[in-house]
Design a protein that fits this description.
It contains four helices and 20 strands. By secondary structure, it is mostly beta strands.
């Protein structure tokens, strides 16, 4: 694959803008809900659980547009197994899943386009089930406590064991200078997805990668601008829920000379091609060296 093509792939991983969040619409159970979601205004629906149970969500985009959805607490807290981008039966516009809600309270379903926009129809159902009260699968997780700090240039192995209830891995990076940061997940045993979050904004990833870097479903890469003293979080998970995975992770940064001299760091789209090429050549070399 040429470097020019690789740059196109990576650009898809960073251009997802932060979307506006309108007031969530109360969800109607057992009915077809028609909606539209855009990168500028995500579609959100409010569900109030009166006790523990199982929340089932089924979504189909009208014209096959790529969509994903998540279930969070009303305050934005992440739930274990609350993110879905499974492309049911190979259809990127088909998403569905069940989330364990172990305690009563308000929850928000967010439908996200993995493109510019999408019109969709959604069905939601609820089954009260006291047996899941306080079950680990429904406990709200805190990425700030779960995330493992990454070391730059340190390629390491990790795994997710679905048989033990594991669904994802969280990593964090605290920037000590402005620059371009890259995280590469490669040589995985299954299709993978990376999501990147700003600190405290875990209900809305600022970048998502499920583009099969280098034509391999087990390879993903996110390239993003980072700012000095800011902390960034990255969630790595199998694209299909309930799947185990073994994979490698590599993280690097290219500092901005302008930032070191006291100037403002450029935005991602203004980063000189040479800096992008440095990361891409490094990533491609790693992938080639580890290819079976």
């Amino acid at each position: 694959m040429s470097i020019r093509l690789l740059i196109t792939v990576v650009a898809l991983s960073w251009t997802l803008p932060t979307a506006a969040l309108a007031e969530p619409i109360p969800v109607s159970l057992g009915m077809s809900i028609h909606g539209e979601t855009t990168t500028n205004e995500l579609a959100e629906y409010l569900f109030e659980a009166d006790g523990p149970g199982m929340l089932s969500v089924v979504i189909r985009s009208d014209n096959g547009e790529n969509v994903a959805f998540s279930v969070r607490t009303a305050s934005g807290g992440a739930l274990v197994g609350g993110d879905f981008d499974n492309d049911f039966n190979g259809n990127r516009g088909a998403e569905q899943g069940i989330v364990v809600l172990s305690v009563e309270g308000e929850y928000v379903i967010t439908v996200r386009p993995l493109g510019g926009s999408a019109e969709f129809v959604m069905g939601v159902s609820w089954m009260p089930f006291d047996e899941v009260a306080n079950e680990g699968n429904g406990i709200v997780i805190d990425p700030t406590e779960e995330a493992e700090p990454v070391l730059l240039g340190d390629q390491f192995e990790d795994s997710i064991d679905a048989t033990e209830g594991e669904r994802e891995r969280w990593y964090s990076y605290e920037a000590d200078e402005d620059g371009v940061f890259v995280i590469i997940v490669h040589n995985s045993t299954t299709d993978m997805t990376i999501q990147a979050y700003n600190d405290g904004e875990f209900d809305n990833p600022f970048a998502v990668s499920n583009e099969n870097f280098g034509g391999n479903a087990g390879n993903e890469i996110i390239l993003t601008t980072v700012r000095e003293d800011e902390v960034y979080y990255f969630k790595v998970s199998p694209t299909s829920q309930g799947t185990s995975a073994e994979f490698h992770v590599l993280c690097e940064i290219t500092p901005f000379a302008e930032a070191a001299a006291g100037g403002a760091a450029p935005e991602p789209e203004l980063v000189p091609d040479g800096r992008l090429r440095l990361h891409l050549e490094r990533g491609l070399r790693v992938l080639q060296e580890t290819r079976p």
